[in-house]
Amino acid sequence: MPDLLGLRGVAGEQILAWIRHARAMQEILQRPVAKVPALRGRRIALMFFENSTRTRMSFELAAKSLGADVLNFSASGSSLAKGETILDTAKTISALGADCMVVRDGHSQMPAYLSQHLEEPVINAGDGTNEHPTQALLDLCVLAQLWQGRFEDRLLVIVGDVARSRVARSHLWAARALGHRVRLVGPRQFFEPGLVEAFGCELTSDLDAGLRGADAVMALRVQKERRQQGGPWLSSQLDYFRTYGLTRARLQQHGEAVPLLHPGPVNRAMELAPDLLYDADRSQIQTQVQTGVALRMAVLYWALGGSDEQIVERVHAGT
Ligand code: CP
Fold first, then answer.
1. Whose alpha carbon is nearest atom 3 of ligand 1?
2. What is the pLDDT, as a whole number, of residue 224?
3. Does ligand 1 come within 6 angstroms of the Cβ of 53?
4. DSSP conformation letters of 231-263
5. In terms of DSSP bridges, do strands 260-261 and 216-219 run parallel, antiparallel, or are they unpaired?
6. How far apart are CA 212 and CA 201, in angstroms?
7. The model scores a pTM over 0.85
8. Sequence ranges of the domains in the chain
9. CATH code, residues 133-287
10. Looking at the domain 12-130+291-317, which fold is it?
């Protein structure tokens, strides 16, 4: 059974296949009864050891839209508080009959570690500062729509806390596979040494220079919880917003219609001006959340052995 632990080493054809499958799933979600029995009788375990709103809820909705049952695990209120380990928790959920494990954890590589000890496929729902593959894939679904399916020569500008961002890392791996350019913009202290060499991306600390020529702009959340409050990493929230905050005026200098993405959750008035958040002309944020359900349906179906042809057959058969 396949795992989805990250986009590192994943071929462009596989990424494009997930995007294509997600489109078929979107068709299911638009029906009056937005449900098919493709995974009826299968059990998807949602194992979230770190907080989440959109990833968790969209995986749950994705599983239920495919007719699967959901085993919901939350760290708070669980036997972790009595000293049970994450591996023993996963083994317990496996014994309850889970067919697939969706794992979020604050530690990088926890999904990879669990996959070494479990028979069931493991899907990474975000691990520490490593990767968040389904977030990057859903963003790529949105970009595929905006860019008419052509990635080559497009420029995705990612602004913000790059070093701590698992979303940025998944995007950097995906860009290597799909052939689009990525330019990272942020304060120098947010960059890791070796990024340019590892990924062939562009890097600048000048936001206005960084936005030039962008085909899409993605702001990243400043990971306040992963940095020491009041430490030397940032002088102040206001200072960050003045230097790196995206505003309508700033984006307008670089093309009237450049689309704006953010994986969420947003620190208002830090990464984005609040009036941009739901700006119908630019903001893709609600579309990203909606697309997450279809993309996660495609990934769950793939992880449990479905094929493209089967999805298309079921969509057309109305089952
Ligand atoms: N983008 C994202 O992972 O959001 P959640 O933390 O709410 O799941």
1. 55
2. 72
3. yes
4. STT-S-HHHHHHHH-B-HHHHHTT-TT--EE--
5. parallel
6. 15
7. yes
8. 12-130+291-317, 133-287
9. 3.40.50.1370
10. Rossmann fold (3.40.50)
